[in-house]
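User: Please predict structures.

Assistant: First:
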Amino acid sequence: MVKLRLKRYGRKQQPSYRIVAMDSRSKRDGKAIEELGFYNPITNETRIDIAKILKRLKQGAQTTRTVKNILNEAQIIAKENS
């Protein structure tokens, strides 16, 4: 199953994450199928390729809870309860 999740990179105590599509059985920092965006929790900076994310979601990719929250904040996907 393909999941949209975060892949950590950056220095110690200064994490940055790439939003990637990868197999759910892969390691957190393993090989990604496709890079879809960027998230920095320290500066709260987010860059997202909306077209690629929507394409992956239409193909049946699942999101992790954190990525879903990031996409909700960016108003890319609607909240389920709304």
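Second:
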Amino acid sequence: MVQATPFLLVLFLALGAQGLSVKKCSLTGMWINDLGSNMTITTVDANGDFTGAYWTAVSATPKEIEVSPLLGSQHLPNQLNQPTFGFTVHWSFSDSITVFTGQCFVDDDGKEVLKTMWLLRSRVESIKSDWKATRSPAIGHTSHCLGKLGWRVERELWFSTAQATHMTQCDLKGLLRNELGSNMTILAMNTAGTFSGFYHTVVAATNKQILESPLQGIQQHPSAKKHPTFGFTVQWQFSDSTIAFVGQCFVDHCGKETLESTWLLREEVLSHKDTWKAPRVGTSIFTFIK
């Protein structure tokens, strides 16, 4: 389980040349944070999808720290100079998953900076222990602190009346719907735990037409765990925001599958000074309808 820290994670790009003015922020390259953790993001494709590797310098597990794969999406890479993004890290040395959302900035000196918020989900043995499974710089803070940071807390509980067939192992694949009518489809998963799908929300803070949006994520040890942790990001096609979910899949005594999750939504802002109002955080409970 990777140690949580009670402050915003700021990643600074290790530039080979100094003083070079950069007009457009690019995620590609090697990054290091103030704790000494390293991240490498490979080329971002035309859809905004990218992969990479993350090596953390901090951990709460006695196991040897290993380089871990990451998978993410950048919002509209060819249209925005300071895009929002999200990615999931599948820790290779623990049963935890971490998701990050943030925005890439170029400061007045031309230096590229990633301002992010994160959620870490640890695996627990039962749904009764779900309360202690998620860590974040925001979780556990008072409402006053959340207000000072500009966080707007929105909580949605998503339910379905459909019952899943009895299963001993939780499977993310399928169609989910919340009580507001939003739909999510998770497609087949490969042996590494990587999956993709689509998300159609019926609630939004924009006046633009809502469009179905792609999602991609990773499930921890898909063949070895009955109640695996997972994380995924959704790149909204109708706004400049990106959202990341992290959670765990459970099967109750009746065989009903439930995804308990916490999410971070990052809105695009015009400048680094406005980052205080960019994130939103909440919790969601997903149930299957097919």
